[in-house]
Design brief:
By secondary structure, this protein is of the alpha+beta class. The protein is built from three helices and ten strands; from the N terminus they run αββββββαβββαβ. The chain has helices at about 1-20, 85-95, 135-140, and strands spanning about 25-30, 40-45, 45-50, 55-60, 60-70, 75-80, 100-105, 110-115, 125-130, 145. The chain is globular, with a radius of gyration of 18 Å.
Length: about 170
């Protein structure tokens, strides 16, 4: 009887785990040479991009996070620190994908993107806007560690774009 109950409950437990792993994901912009079956077209900040359907990183890859008030003062940005194994993957990906975008998707909605301007060796993916207090609380409830600011005047400022990476159509 116990084994029957375990068999019936196991799919529910696995399904819940998959649902949580899909709360946030980071998708690399696909190139023109990639097959249409592998990518999907999305709109982020009034711009349309093709991104890979399969995420480069997802919620299970996140070790901790640091929320901050965005530049617009209406939403939050979050800097996500990846787990040790994924830091190497981010470094490799950011080396070969220079000039492409890494799009943050929360649930099923694109939130923001960053342009990869060089190797990212510190293991952080920063999204500069688009999160709410509710999404921050959701990350906490999923037991993702919150990184506390080291001092009361700690701030994170968005980087200045590099001139050679500015898209003339933007």
């Amino acid at each position: 009887m116990r084994s029957l109950a375990l068999i019936l409950i196991l799919p529910l437990l696995l399904g819940a785990k998959r649902k949580d792993s899909g709360l946030i994901s980071f998708h690399l912009e696909s190139g023109q040479e990639n097959q249409k079956e592998e990518s999907v077209q999305i709109r982020v900040s009034q711009k349309i991009f093709n991104i890979f359907k399969k995420p480069a990183f997802n919620q299970r890859d996140i070790d901790s996070f640091y929320p901050f008030l965005s530049e617009d003062g209406e939403s939050y940005g979050i800097s996500f620190k990846l787990k040790k194994k994924k830091i190497k993957e981010l470094s490799t990906l950011s080396t070969v994908a220079r000039g492409r975008r890494l799009v943050t998707v929360l649930g099923m909605q694109p939130v923001d993107y960053v342009v990869i301007d060089g190797p990212i060796q510190h293991g952080y993916i920063t999204c500069w806007k688009g999160f709410t207090e509710k999404s921050i609380e959701k990350f906490k409830s999923l037991k993702i560690k919150l990184i506390e600011p080291q001092s009361s005047d700690s701030i994170i400022s968005p980087p200045e774009p590099l001139p050679e990476l500015i898209d003339p159509q933007e």
